[in-house]
Amino acid sequence: MTSSNHENAAGPLTRLWGKIVGFALKLKKLGKDDPRRIIHSFKMGLALTLVSIFYYFKPLYEGFGLAAMWAILTVVVVFEFTVGSTLGRGLNRMLATLTAAALGIGAHRLATLSGETGEPILIALFVFIIAGIVTFLRFIPQIKARYDYGMLIFLLTFCLISVSGYRDEEVIEMAFERLSTIVIGSCTSVIVCIFICPVWIGVDLHNQIATNIEKLGNFLEGYGEEYFKVSEEGQPRDKSSILDGYKSVLSSSSKEETMANLARWEPRHGKFRFRHPWKQYLKVGSITRQCAFKLEALNSYLISEIQSPPEVRSIIQEASTAVSSECGKALKELASALRKMTKSSAAEPHIATSKDAAENLKSVIRSSLSKHDDILQIIPAGAVASLLCEVVKCTEEIADAAHKLASLAHFKNAKPKVTPEQKELPSQGIVQPVSGIDGMHHVITINEPSQSLQENRNLPPAMAPRMEV
Amino acid sequence: MTSSNHENAAGPLTRLWGKIVGFALKLKKLGKDDPRRIIHSFKMGLALTLVSIFYYFKPLYEGFGLAAMWAILTVVVVFEFTVGSTLGRGLNRMLATLTAAALGIGAHRLATLSGETGEPILIALFVFIIAGIVTFLRFIPQIKARYDYGMLIFLLTFCLISVSGYRDEEVIEMAFERLSTIVIGSCTSVIVCIFICPVWIGVDLHNQIATNIEKLGNFLEGYGEEYFKVSEEGQPRDKSSILDGYKSVLSSSSKEETMANLARWEPRHGKFRFRHPWKQYLKVGSITRQCAFKLEALNSYLISEIQSPPEVRSIIQEASTAVSSECGKALKELASALRKMTKSSAAEPHIATSKDAAENLKSVIRSSLSKHDDILQIIPAGAVASLLCEVVKCTEEIADAAHKLASLAHFKNAKPKVTPEQKELPSQGIVQPVSGIDGMHHVITINEPSQSLQENRNLPPAMAPRMEV
């Protein structure tokens, strides 16, 4: 009885301890996945401690008084993980405070003119109208994407200035205090964010787009082997696989749009200019996603219960594997060139080869596949083959979009040895990957949200964030 | 010369006027798309005007002093479009302020004990440590999803209380003022948000899931006709079509997750309980999306350049159209039952019929399609047929998930005339849609972000938002 009680008492404690250990391990994993998170936490501590000096340092305190707390408040709400986000919020907050303060002072003056009875009524009316208009404007998608925070702060400041002015006649002084402390808070945030291990969301977007293309390439390179391995064993493969990396591309749309919106706030850094063609990144991303939908269809034939028998598949094995792996190589070349920010035509021979292989695949189907009797057994293999032919088209589209991006963003040409000679040989056999570029590839197997951040650590030195403005 | 100058002068003015008119039309469209936006703007104005009374009303002003502006600030940042969002932010803000105020007072007391030199150092250390920890914790996905705003406010309040305490000894009074004004601001927001034309995000999510299933149903109902119309004209159809409604389902994942997270804050309303099975909505949504990927593959055969010739397609026309339209009807029945929050087995006869039709389709392929010589011409039609067979499986999965949702959410049974008799006839011929339910369907053609909001206006009276807590 006692021992059972003892066990019961130890039970909850042990469970609690287990939970604490689990939580600690989770935190450790978070930091390990992306060490920039740990650095960011330190930066936040530093920025807040810096701005607290306004309270410690007497002369400043006497100058600003209680309004100095606005500086602390500003740092807490403006300081974000990436430079684009911090700059966007900081600029929004400063500009919105400036315009709202001016408008608030004007509204207050106007209300004062109407005498003691009219003043509160007029101010309430102003607040009601401005609040309604600003709230409605926030529904406009373009404003929501870039100026939502500014609209919020505009409304906030306008209310504070015009309403508080009713009691306290030092409206202008108050507005000036609020504005100056907000400028100090915003600048502290921006400076700490940019000058200590900055995280550029533009770089993250750039890498995410390259990684997504690479994921498709990985899938296609491995697809042939995986599909025909199934045929040898006669069994559909497991549902989880290292090929599943492409799945995260299917739903990357909204994340990419947010990143592009934030990237537009960032100044020139490293090889990224101020007006970097972020919209073209979104186009490349969208075409990549279209291609990922085709891969989803291809993948469904891997796990489908209705399969063509091995003897049917083996007919198309050679040609299909060639198409798939050449497309995969082309995509990985494109990803690698994009990642290194170079103009490269290293993908073109692969695309040309994949086109030839697709023609070859069609003639194999026409000549050999039709000799089989049971059409139901032929259809899955035939569908895979025709999807692969469409993937060739997709790969070309991705290549076009990526080349356009390279020229819009003024990427430099890759080393000459890759370009001119190989351009002359569009339909040579299977082209070996250029070794200098191939060293860049790393197969991505884990399918996690934190992945794109994690991968940025593998940036080549040329891509390491650098501040030039 | 003068007339040219005049034209130049009129040019910019005309263009400016054009821009103003365009902007006004855009605003009008925003309001027309979802009139709840206009109501929301009025509600925001009302809430802010209400809370401004704290400044007008003398006794209250003397009680709270300048801290009353926190109430205004709270309304601006807490008041959101939906009840779930407003409640989530309000609760986060109140709880975070409470705990941070307590911790801030504690930190301040501890620092005071260490003497005049030690005090600022100790407070700076506390701020640095707490800022670092809180910032890091915000990276945990579960915390980010529901308590991100609370963490921000916790950090903010802790800094304000502990730092300002160094100068101003009335720390406890300040903490109380801040807490009470924030409670007043939050409660004002929540009350206005709930009691004046509330927008329940749970209802929005519910409708979005039903609408998504309906979109797939619309596609499938129309697909057969569209695919074989192509065959008659011998030309691939235009790229844009009323069938494209399903495309918005492809990327709905992150939006649905956000909605489910916010819906969990909402109290009981209408037929929605407090612990409504929001997770099951996400599961239904995810399976619906899987099915949408299949439709994307089907759709690609509509616009593909390689098409089976009409004579090949006509062989499978009857069976394919039957599969497609029966799946479509089943999905639309499921969507209709979900929308009306009833348990209904009206979809089951359609599913059974579609299964029979799929078997029939397979035997048609086996017997007739294989008589053709050119296998390349058969493959597209064969692939469409095999995709349709997979869609039958998807439809069943959606039905299972929707039935599970209906039982978890305790939906009531539909009118008895639909259920028991028809359950006994799983493999009858083609079932006519139940007319009473069929009147609910409306074809959705515009593919816009605002669509899901817009559609909520078409709610049946039973679903109209109602507050029961």
Automatic annotation (TrEMBL), chains A, B:
Spans traversing the lipid bilayer: 38-57, 63-83, 95-115, 121-140, 147-167, 179-203
Entry-linked InterPro entries: ALMT (IPR020966)
Top-rank lineage group of the source organism: Eukaryota
Places the protein is found: Membrane
One of the GO BP terms on file: monoatomic ion transmembrane transport
Region (Disordered), start-end ranges: 448-469
Any one GO cellular component localisation term in the record: membrane
Compositionally biased intervals (Polar residues): 448-457
Major place of residence: membrane
Record keywords: Ion channel, Ion transport, Membrane, Transmembrane, Transmembrane helix, Transport
Membrane topology listed for this record: Multi-pass membrane protein
Any matching Pfam family: ALMT
KW Transmembrane helix (keyword) present: yes
Family indicated by similarity: Belongs to the aromatic acid exporter (TC 2.A.85) family.
Xref: PANTHER family: ALUMINUM-ACTIVATED MALATE TRANSPORTER 10
UniProt-recorded name of the protein: Aluminum activated malate transporter family protein
Taxonomic source organism: Prunus dulcis
